[in-house]
Design goal:
Radius of gyration: 23 Å
Number of domains: 3
Strand order of the largest sheet: 15-14-13-16-17-19-18
CATH superfamily of the largest domain: Vaccinia Virus protein VP39
Number of helices: 8
CATH topology of the largest domain: Rossmann fold
Distance between the termini: 51 Å
Largest sheet: 7 strands, mixed
């Protein structure tokens, strides 16, 4: 079968046309497969009535954009290691176009999806990594591992190329220390480590059936402002590209009042609107404590609440910043935005599908003025997308 295209989940899409196959006529979603490639053999990982999911195991005709992956366990962490970088950037732009199309969104004539923004760094960009621990019966030692894609099986690893080198080195040191005292892998849930831009590493082991430990906070500087955050809390994974996104957002802040919803520890609002009348809303208590700390020495107003429950903060003469979880915004928030019609909405999303759904509803009263994808996660199908919405009468 021939791979037609890449889908938002990251797999290659094909249609099974083998009359001898029990799956003839079904759609196939396959990892390790690129557009234009001919797949002759594949391993099925999931069966449904109208489609299957799996992994291509034999390619008869390879794409000119295919690369040899760096890591043996690449399907677990970064399944797009097989794409050349320029092709990856274009595929991500095309996936944004498809997400908008599926939500029946037509861009204004003067607006197009811009090229995917990157800092050019393909490897060792992640500042956070969580590893499984694997017990090797042959060596009688613990090894670092990842879970196989679509399974609970642990696959031991000797190398990993997407996290910062300091993280992997510290992970190996921790495993060496466990092996020196003849510890057992089954005692531990996982190993989580995070590094800041200086290369300082914090984090540690999660022990089964015990509360997660409190790790030493890290600090990072983003657009000339220092932020404190917990290694196991929410903080952006790829800070150099995140800063590129923040600089684009800063260009769009044209009102004196700014409301930053789903603000986390405050890195968007405090980076792009620190000199404005800024309100930041966050519901997670741990993140809010960091937000309060980060708001010190500023006139910003932190609020502990769910963004959907403080819609009274939404005003007409505002710019509203949205950076919701993957599930997107709740409809009651969308309804309040349509009722109050703030002058501009800046919507950054880690899930283009739910973003497109929300933007489709907002398009009743808003026009899209910019669409900018960002490659926060090279070698993976994950995309961060920025959409700027202006009130139609603004």
């Amino acid at each position: 079968m021939i791979i037609e295209k890449l889908v938002p989940g990251g797999q290659g899409l094909a249609r099974i046309t083998d009359e001898n196959s029990p799956h003839n006529g079904k759609v196939a979603f396959l990892w390790n497969a690129l557009p234009g490639e001919m797949v002759s053999e594949y391993e099925i990982t999931k069966k449904k009535s109208h489609y299957i999911e799996g992994i291509a195991t034999k390619i008869e005709a390879s794409s000119p954009h295919r690369l040899e992956p760096k890591d043996t366990c690449y399907l677990s962490t970064s399944p797009w290691q097989i794409l050349d970088f320029e092709y990856e950037l274009e595929q991500k732009r095309l996936l944004i176009i498809e997400s908008l199309s599926q939500a029946h969104i037509s861009l204004p004539e003067q607006v197009e999806v811009e090229p995917t923004v990157t800092d050019g760094v393909e490897w060792n960009y992640r500042n956070k990594m969580e590893y499984a621990l694997y017990w090797d019966n042959n060596s009688q030692k613990i090894k670092l591992a990842f879970h196989g894609r679509g399974t609970h099986l642990k696959i031991p690893i000797e190398s990993s190329s997407i996290e910062r080198k300091e993280i992997f080195e510290e992970a190996k040191n921790i495993i060496d220390a466990l092996n020196e005292k003849h510890d057992e892998a089954r005692k531990y849930q996982s190993l989580l480590l995070r590094a800041n831009q200086k290369g300082e590493v914090s984090g540690g082991l999660f022990v089964n059936h015990e509360p997660h430990p409190i790790f030493k906070n890290l600090t990072d500087t983003i657009i000339n402002r220092e932020y404190s955050y917990s290694p196991n809390g929410f903080f952006q994974i790829n800070l150099p590209v995140y800063e590129l996104a923040l600089r684009e957002i800063a260009k769009e802040i044209t009102t004196e009042k700014v409301l930053d919803l789903y603000s986390g520890v405050g890195t968007i609002g405090l980076s792009v609107a620190r000199d404005k009348d800024l309100t930041l809303v966050e519901s997670n208590k741990d993140a809010y404590r960091e937000l309060e700390n980060n708001c010190k020495n500023s006139d910003a107003h932190p609020v502990l609440a769910k963004s959907e429950e403080v819609t009274e903060y939404i005003e007409h003469d505002q710019t509203v910043i949205l950076d919701p979880p993957r599930s997107g915004c709740e409809k009651r928030l969308i309804d309040k935005l349509l009722e109050t019609t703030p002058e501009k909405i800046v919507y950054l999303s880690c899930n283009p599908a739910t973003q497109a759904r929300d933007v489709s509803m907002l398009s009743e009263k808003y026009s899209i003025t910019r669409v900018v994808p960002f490659n926060f996660f090279p070698k993976t199908p994950h995309i961060e997308n920025l959409i700027i919405l202006s009130h139609k009468t603004a």
